[in-house]
Amino acid sequence: FASVIYNKPLNRAQDSCSQRYGELLGTCSCQVTCQSLGTCCPDCKEFCLQISPYSGSLMGGKDFLIENTALNASSMLTCRFKQKINTSGYVAKDGKAHCISPLLYETGFIPFEVSTDDGLTFPYSGTWLSVHHSKVSDGEKCTLVNETKWQYYGTPNTDGNLTLTWTHQALATTYINIEVWGYHETGDSYSENWLAEWKYLYTLAREIPNTGKFSFIPVPAKGSYSTWDFGILRITPSNYSDGQSNIPSIWSSEHALAWHLGKDFRNDPNAWATAKCIEWDKKEEKLPNFMEEIIDCPCTLAQARADTGRFHTDYGCDIEKGSVCTYHPGAVHCVRAIQASPQYAAGQQCCYDSTGTQILTHDSTGGSTPDRGHDWGSPPFMKPPRIPGFSHWLYDVISFYYCCLWSDNCHIYMKKRSSSDCRTYRPPRAASAFGDPHFLTFDGLNFTFKGQGEYTLVESDLTSLRVQGRTQQVYFPNGTGAQVTGLSAVAMQENNSDVIEVRYSEDLNLEVLLNQRVISFSEQRWMDLKGLFLHSAADQNITVMFSSGTGVEIRGSGGFLSLTVLLPEKFMNHTQGLFGVMNGNIEDEYTFKNKTIMSVHATPQQLFEYGATWAVENGTSLFTYDTKFLLNNFFYGKKHNASFLPVFFPHEDPADPLVKEMVSLCDSDPFCRFDVLTTRSLQVGNSTRLSHQNHKLLVENLKPDMSLLLVISCGWLDHPTNGRKNGTNYLLGSTISFICNQGYELTESKERICQVTGAWSGDTPSC
């Protein structure tokens, strides 16, 4: 349905937003769009809660303010999350109500309600954004000063004081307690009874002044507590009881609890960790092999950075932040697969060296290591192995401490977490639209379509993917209308995912809407949503990553949007719309809805008529119509404005002073020239030129070897026993040579070359 709110008279007084947040009622609306349309129910502002801050760690304990509803100071406030988790609320001296967020085992927007009658009824409602613990800003946590020291405490040359600091204003109390919590998962792996639990262990310090700093010399924890090796610290006001859940709290980062481990660890950390490493290795033997179902890595760094629908920067090794790659020596950049694998919820990681070649663990400890538990967790969360951050710590991180950091057994770890190569990797195809809309299709055809309206850019029967674009008239610098259009909004959905819309508002601000509501990135730049992840970079660059691996990138520039859609290979022969039929054949790009095909040599006028047939209908529109302008022009108006006739062939007058500047700016780029002439703006032309360049570069990066359409990898080669090898590049054309140790001689191939067939030349050498 189109997201529109009808203007209906507010006559029936009984329509109320109590418990009806987000609904369209008979006489009025409780939807977010009602404010700009003036159709809200009289009590909407009272019952539809606005909160600040709107997000916090999934660990809970964050105090947030309810901004828009004044509640009675004597009210017994209860806050309820997901209709089942109750936390206590309170009304402050200024009459404002507050809630405390709960411990959750999931990320994303969580519905909550508020009761003022001690939990009898919950008429007030809103949403809270639960965030991955390591994506929360440092200021919201307490800091383990010199975190490495905490995590290596008791190993050789690591002892003395440990210090914890925090923002003391974050807790309105004079005295605090510091507690130790541990994380574990119980039950049988990959079964129904596999459960996750954060458990209070003991109180480290009681009733100490809330100064923002605490130092201590750690002693081994008493009794069974010392067996907990992964956990977290929590600071709470000291008037609450030990381990009380969902109270105001400041958590530390999750970490390896070396500092509290027992005497057996301190006496011989290497022996203790070796035993743990061997125990982990045995446990891994019994678990299913997750490696078979994770996606292979991109072959090159350029591909890894271009495939934004399926891979995202690993913050632990980022080329844009100076390549500080602590766990991956020799790497300049790593990426993680965005989606967890389907059955085991496992993760992939891919690391690259300065030449852009993938680093494999077979050759270097800096190689990429896949993960039994995806670091970001995966829907529906709640149970292992899908708990954001913490499942990953349990299977992939604490075991790295056992085998690689606290003892010298990294070969055991690397055997169970060896890098995938890129032999089955297939790059996605890209299509783009920008400027006075110029379209570059998945199969590489380009054309210009300047209709005014709302159109299907791509849709697919494979995953019910729909990406729709709205175009509006461009205005000359002097304010009069030009006879061309530009992309002003893009809306998208896949299967029954959330609907995302990116648009320019009427005052030219870039807005992102989630299910019709404008969202803010002021607290979080990354959001885990239903069926997709959403990321906003600082430079007005929005990326939507759908669960199919489809990526949509939208950039705002000069009042118009430029758009790129990346589709994995499985969408071959499953697309239609203005971006064409993705099948490697350029001849059928202009396919109509009824499957008839127009020649690729069609005139601009014929293209205009073709584009008009891809106008969306109100019944299938994903756009939000929340202003009078949008209602009148795009909801009640025609989806394709046939009376708007664009310029098909702009006139280039040599005497025009703009032409000379255009030539020096655009050179031979036809899109840039077209847009300068039709908009009389060098700025528009320049942004078109950059978008066109970006698209060409993207296509180039995704297919470095145009003749083969994919990068060929022959797979890892081992050195012969009693010999060594030179070279760690396993892509097409690479040579690996072999030398025997002194006193041995080589039989079979001295060197082997990676061939077009994906096989190595020659035979396996031996010494």
UniProtKB/TrEMBL annotation:
The Sushi domain, residue ranges: 712-767
Disulfide bonds: 740-767
Subcellular location field: Membrane
Cellular component terms (Gene Ontology): membrane
Listed Gene3D superfamilies: Complement Module, domain 1 (2.10.70.10), Immunoglobulins (2.60.40.10)
Keywords assigned by UniProt, alphabetized: Disulfide bond, Membrane, Sushi, Transmembrane, Transmembrane helix
SUPFAM superfamilies referenced in this protein's UniProt entry, alphabetically: Complement control module/SCR domain, Somatomedin B domain
Domain SMB: 13-52
Domain of life: Eukaryota
Positions of the VWFD domain: 429-622
Signal peptide location: none
Residues in AMOP domain copies: 269-417
Protein name: SUSD2 protein
Organism: Sula dactylatra (Masked booby)
Taxonomic classification: Eukaryota, Metazoa, Chordata, Craniata, Vertebrata
